[in-house]
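Thought: the user wants the 3D structure for the chain below. I'll pass the sequence to the structure tool as-is, report back what it returns, then summarize two notable features.
Action: structure_tool
Action Input:
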Amino acid sequence: MMFVWSCTNIVSDVENLFDPQDPDYIAPSTGIFSGPLDGDILDTNEVTFTFRHSNSQYWPDSSNTLTRLPHEILYSFRVDNNSWSTWSSGDDILKKDLSFWTYDSTTGLHTVTITNLEDKHYTVEFRSQYPTNITE
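Observation:
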């Protein structure tokens, strides 16, 4: 058996933007980039929202090494205070082949279409969660 003991502090320069201790960390925050605005009156029985993390630091960027970040952030939504949808990451959505929820891995944008809407007021909410279980 061999044991190695060290009293040296190991300092890592690995950036982990999901870790609140990282100096560049930003809390989960969902940005809605397209869809109806609060108070909009629509003449349709379906609505589509496009969303992703609100801070561009968490968007895909081929020029940096953090390109996996957007694919690992989990999102959930609900309509009219009903149950939240299952947490799903971009990777999950690509594997599931859902008709109402898509994910564009080049932009990090999620698109959700809600159908069969009746002529009434609806409240739609979105939230995000890091794989470290930190929730918006």
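Final Answer: Structure generated. The chain has two helices and seven strands. Helices lie at 69-72, 90-96.
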